[in-house]
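pinging the channel bc i need a second pair of eyes. not urgent but kinda urgent?? the chain im working w is below, pasted from the shared doc
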Amino acid sequence: MAHPADVTLILCSRERPRLLRDALASVVSVTSPDVEVVVVDSGSTTDATGRVAREAGVRTVRTDIRGLSIARNVGLRASEREIVVYTDDDCVVTAGWLEAMLRHFDAPDVGVVTGRMLDHTKVGSEQAYTHKWRFTDVADGLDAGHGALMAFRRKPLLALGGFDEVLGAGRELAGAEDLDAFCRMIDDGWRIVHEPDSIVHHVFTRVGENYRELLHGYGLGMGALANKWSRIDKSIGRVMLTVVLSRQLRKAARALPRRRARARAELAMATGIVRGYRRGSRLRLDGKLFVDASRPAPIVLSGGPAQESDDPAGASNAPAPLSREGHTDAR
């Protein structure tokens, strides 16, 4: 049976110390102190991210190479526990979130458990929640969950190479790294379960042009993901491209009559899917991972304490237990 002591919770953050402080405060308030918490500083230009983590009494490691997937892999390598759980620095966890996820790992074929994300402004007003809960086909990974709350068996994810570092926030193909990991875990024979009682509240919402750019980046990643699978298995890739592109066009059509800005954002994602598919075709594959031929330049802090780079052999701050104090600003 999985226990909190089997878990490392990984939060990747870059240049958002206030949001990170609130995220860590929520973790401290409702999560067992047996859980190891690791904050990965994803190439921040100041030491603010590391300082917030140290103030919270949690372990911090750093990569000088920005990119969400790169940071997630640094956290993955920094853990030695059986289960790694990821949430985002702009989310706060809710009571019972971890226990609801852990019970599914009692089934030996479950490799991933995902949770539910709610916009914090709509909590209490949401409609009845319906969602498929079991995912066993590779293309099912598209709907298995999202990076805001996801738990993996660590060793299988490591064996598959972790997250594809060409995909995700901070890179040109700025999305679908979470879905890609789900698809590869399913392809490796693992089952994914979605747990609706494991909930985080999303507290940072983009609007206007920022939202359009966000969806366009997601689309680029989704298109590249579909291209990857079209080269691994044509039938799977064809299904993926058809699903994601038709879904976005329907969303845009539904929004067009009354919400033109939303329709433009959904169309931007559809455009991103097409462009991402073409961009993916120009990338080499190493197994089921894209080859990272244009890795970002390092961002090296001047002064401040030394922290771990994306080299797993680098130095790191010693682990510390979760603090139960010093969070008077918690939500």
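so Residues 1-205 form a domain with the Spore Coat Polysaccharide Biosynthesis Protein SpsA; Chain A fold (CATH 3.90.550.10). and Confidence is low (pLDDT under 50) at residues 305-331. — does that match what u expected or am i reading it wrong
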